[in-house]
Amino acid sequence: MTAAADLPISEVIPAVRSALSTRPLVVLQAPPGAGKSTALPLALLDEPWLAGQRVILLQPRRVAARAVAARLAEGLGEEVGGTVGYRVRFEARVSARTRLEVVTEGILTRRLQRDPELAGVGLVILDEFHERSLNADLALALLREVQEALREDLRVLVMSATLNPDLPARLGAPLVESQGRAYPVEVRYLPADPVGRVEQQVAQAVHTALARDEGDILAFLPGVREIRGAQAALAGADALVLPLYGDLPVREQRRALLPDPSGRRKVVLATSIAETSLTMDGVRVVVDGGLSRTQRFDPATGLTRMETVRVTRDAAAQRAGRAGRTAPGIAYRLWSERTQPLLPAARPPEILEADLAPLTLELAQWGAPDPGALAWLDEPPPHRVEAARGLLGQLGALDPDGRVSPEGTRLLEFPTHPRVAHLLTGGASQGQGPLAADVAALLEERDPLPAGSGSDLTDRIVALRSWRTGQRLSAGADPSVLERVERLARQWRGLLGVLPDNTTPDALEVGTLLALAYPERVALARPAASGLGRGRFLLAGGQGAALPEGDALAGAPALAVAHLDAAQAEGRVFLAAPLDPGSLVARAAWQDVVRWDPRSGLLVAQQERRFGALVLETRPLRQVPAELRIPALAGAVRAEGLHLLTFPPEAAQWRARVASLRRWRPDEGWPDVSDAALLATLEDWLGPALASARSREDLARVPVFGPLQTLLAWPLPQQLDDLAPTHLMVPSGSRVRLEYRPDEPPILAVKLQELFGLADTPAVNGGRTPVLLHLLSPAGRPVQVTQDLRSFWNSSYFEVRKDLRGRYPKHPWPDDPWNHVATRLTKARLDQAQSGKSRK
C-alpha cells in the first residue's frame, strides 16, 4: 500500500487542517488518485477541533464505500470494523471502536432525520461531490441548516475531483486545491465514429490493447447486458476477464478490484461506478466505450426510464485518468477526435432531472415542506416537487396539508423508494408480507427472464420460488439474477418479520400489490369500440399503454403496470400483473363530471366513479351546479372559438370602440377586449349568462352585449360615449354612424355634398384622432378616402366634380364648395326647401 506521505494529497493536508480549524465548511479539489478518499480522512482523526468525535465519509456508491473503507483500514493495519467501518444498505461493519464511518448517501440522510444534531460526529466529508447526486445535494442542504441552527462546531468538507469554479463562492467556503501527480495518459481516438454494438467495439479494442500494451485493462460499458456481451466476446482472451457493477456480489467485486493472486493479467469490464473513488492497482489501459446509462424522469408522465447516453467530457476525463494513477497509461476512446468537443461538457445535477418523490418526503419529515426554505446549490424544480407531492398523496405518505402522515413516517424506515416501501407496508398489513418481499425485490433488480418472456410479473415470482426451492428453472432464467433477487427479498422479509412463501402466487394478488406502488399506473383495457385492438390500456394517470403483440396479458380487463417507457402517445408495457377491476371500487370516488362533447355539440353531465382517469361506473347527473356547468361551457368556447357566441353589430362596434381607446389612451385603464382576452376571462364576464346553455344552439343565443358592457368600470361608460361616439353630426344635419376598426382610425362614410363648407376633418378621442373620411357619391359609392378634408376641397374635389356631375346632374356640384350649403338633396329639392324657408 502506498504510504500517505507518498500521495499528492499530503502536500495540502496542512492547508485542509488549517481551514477546518477556523471555518465550518471547506471545499477541496483533488484529482483522482491524489489520495483524498484514502489518506486525508485518517490524517484528520486527531485534530483538536474534532475532540475525539467521529468522522462520517459519504460515498455515492456501495462498491466504493466498501472499497474505500478497506483501504482506510489497511492504512491503519486493521480490519474493517475497527477504527474504520462502513454502513451501506442492509450491511454494516462497525463497532464501538469505530471513529471513521464510510457510508452511502441514504444512510447519512436517515441518521440526520433521527438525530439532526449528529451527536458525537465532528466532521462530515462529502466525497465525489462533482457527481452532484440528488442525495449529496440533499445532505449538503441539511448539513448547512444543522450548522446554522444546531451545531456551530460541526465541520463539513466537500471533496471533488473536478470543480465548478463558482462552487466555493456559492458556498461561502475557502478552497484548497491539490494538483496531484497523475502520470501522463496517451489518448487514442478512432479515425471515425464506429457503427455497431458497443460491446463488440469494446471487445475488439481490448484484444488490441492486450496485444500492444502492458498492464491490466479497465473497460467502461453502459450496463450489465453490454458487460455480459463483451465478456462473451472475450472468452478466448489470454487474461482474466471480470465484471464490475453495483449489484455484483461483494465477493466478486473484491475479485475485480484486487490484483489477481496468481498474477494473471486482468480485464475489468465496468459500468460508470469505476470512474472515481475505486482504486485498482495495476490498471495501465482504459477502454472507454463512450456510453453511460442514466435514469431520466419525465414529469409529463411521472415515469422514469433508463436511457443510454453519450459520455460527458468530464466523465471521459475521469475514465482516462484511471490509466495514469500508478504509471504512464493509455486510454482508448471509441469515438473520433473531432467528436470529442461535441460531447456534453458535464452531467447536469441530478436534482434538476430526477424523480423528486424521495427527496420531497425527506423534506417533509425534516420539517421543510417548502424546499425554498433550505440553502441549495440548485433548488428542486417547483413543478417536479408538485408532481412528487401528488404521488406521495396517492401513497398516503402526505396529508392534504403536505405534512408527513404516519404512513409516510413508516415509509422512510425502508431504504428504498416510497413506492416500494408502500408496497411492503401495504402487503404486510394485508397478510401478504412474503409475496410483497418477492415483488419488491423483483422490482428493484434486473429481469431474471430473457427478452421475449412476456410482461407478467407473476412468471418472475414463479421463477424465483422455483430457484429458491431447487426446482428446475424455465428456459433462459438467469440464476445469478435470481440469486441477487433472493438476497434482497431476504432483507425485506427480515424487515417485515416474515418467512418465505414458495407456493404458486395468485396473479391477482400480485396485481393488487403492484397497484400499491404504482397507483397512477393502474390500467383498464380500452373498449373494443375504441378501434385500438387488444392489449391497449388507459392508465389512471391519463396516458395510454400497450402490451407487446401477443402478450399473455393482452386479454386482461385491468392491469397494474410496474415498468413501461414514457413514450408521448402510448407507452410500451414491460412488466405488469393482472388486476381485478372490482378491487378499485373501494379506492374510487364518485365525482360530478360536466364536459362538452364536441361531436354532438352538447353538454354531458353525469356522475362518475373514478380512480384517477379511469371511469368505473357512470350515472346521470340530474342537477348541474353552475360551478361545473360554467367552466365546461367556457372550455367549449375556448376550444372551438368565439364564433360559438353571437356578437350583434352593436357589440362588435362596442369592442372596436373600447379597443381604440385602449390603444389611444394606454394609461387610462381601458380593458383588453381582444378575442384572446375575452376567451381567457369568459367565466368572469359571461359566466352568469351561460347558466342555462346546454348546446351549440343555446350558446349562439346567449346575449353577450350586456355582459360585455360590465367590463367598463365607472366612469368609463360615459367617457366611451364622449370619446368614441357611435355617430357624428355633419353639416347637412345628418347623424352619420362611425365604423371603428382595430389599429385604424374610425371610418365616417358620408356623401361628400353633406360636407360642403366644412374645412376641418371631424375628429374623435377628444379631438385628437381625425376620422378617415370615405366620401361617397350620391349613389353611396366611395369616390375618395382622406383624412385631410381641407386639401380635398382645394384640389381633388375638382377632379371628382368633373367625373360626377355628368353622372349625377340632378345633384349640386358647385364651383365653390366652401360656400355652398351642405345637403343630401337634389338641386330641385334643395331649391324647393330653400324657397319654402324664404316664404316662411
TrEMBL record:
Superkingdom to which the source organism belongs: Bacteria
CDD domains found in the cross-reference section: DEXHc_HrpB, SF2_C_RHA
Keywords annotated in UniProt: ATP-binding, Helicase, Hydrolase, Nucleotide-binding
One Pfam family here: HrpB_C
Record's keyword annotation contains ATP-binding: yes
GO molecular function: hydrolase activity; RNA helicase activity
Domain Helicase ATP-binding, residue spans: 17-166
EC number: 3.6.4.13
Residue ranges annotated for the Helicase C-terminal domain, each copy included: 201-367
Major enzyme class: hydrolase
InterPro entries (alphabetical): CON_HrpB (IPR056329), DEAD/DEAH_box_helicase_dom (IPR011545), HA2_WH (IPR048333), Helicase-assoc_dom (IPR007502), Helicase_ATP-bd (IPR014001), Helicase_C-like (IPR001650), HrpB (IPR010225), HrpB_DEXH (IPR049614)
Record keyword Repeat present: no
Protein name as it appears in the record: ATP-dependent helicase HrpB
Originating species: Deinococcus navajonensis
This protein's encoding gene: hrpB
